[in-house]
Amino acid sequence: MNSPSPFPSDLMKLFRRIVGMPSTIGLGALAALMTLGCLGTKPTSDEESLGFAGDIEGIMSKFCFECHGVEHQEADLDLRTVDSILTGGESGPAIVPGHPEESLLLDMIHDEHMPPEGEILTEKAIEQVRQWIASGARP
């Protein structure tokens, strides 16, 4: 199954023609084409690119899953998926996407209630969680 190309078809035709050119001309033209292609892309900020699976799940696994994972779900809170975080536990949803200042999870981390013992989250990890929530808590 072919996935749709992110490039317009005329750019793909041009690319195919460049590949067939003698190497020196082809490489120069390819470099120019790649530069032009990058000009139209919108850079993403760190906040926009954060996702649960790639950035937050590892933090949660290291610091939270012992009490809010498979074996234990203290206060009926499961922090293993975005859906379960949004559902929350006894105190309601653990986060409010787009609003880290209203998110119980961050309050508990900042007040050092979570994790209750052992190693606490680094400032970098806390900031990643804050940014993830602020950007909408993507999966």
Kindly list the characteristics that best describe this protein:
139 residues; mainly alpha
Detailed description of the structure:
- This protein is 50% helix and 0% strand.
- By secondary structure, it is an all-alpha fold.
- It folds into 2 domains: 9-39, no CATH class; 46-134, no CATH class.
- The longest helix is centred in the first third of the chain and has 17 residues, at 23-39.
- The two termini are 25 Å apart.
- 16% of the residues are buried.
- Residues 38-44 have low confidence and may be disordered.
Task: Summarize the helices and strands and which ones pair or pack.
Layout: H1 9-19, H2 23-39, H3 46-49, H4 52-63, H5 82-87, H6 104-110, H7 123-134
Helix pairs in contact: 1-2, 4-7
The chain-level mean pLDDT equals: 81
The main pleated sheet reads as: none
Number of domains: 2
Helix content: 40-55%
Radius of gyration: 22 Å
Strand content: under 5%
Gross geometry: elongated
Total beta strands: 0
Poorly predicted regions are: 38-44
Structural class: mainly alpha
How far the N terminus sits from the C terminus, by CA atoms, comes to 25 Å
Number of helices: 7
Topology as a string of helices (H) and strands (E):
HHHHHHH
Brief summary:
This protein has 139 residues and is mostly helical. Helix content is 50%, strand content 0%. It has two domains: 9-39, no CATH class; 46-134, no CATH class.
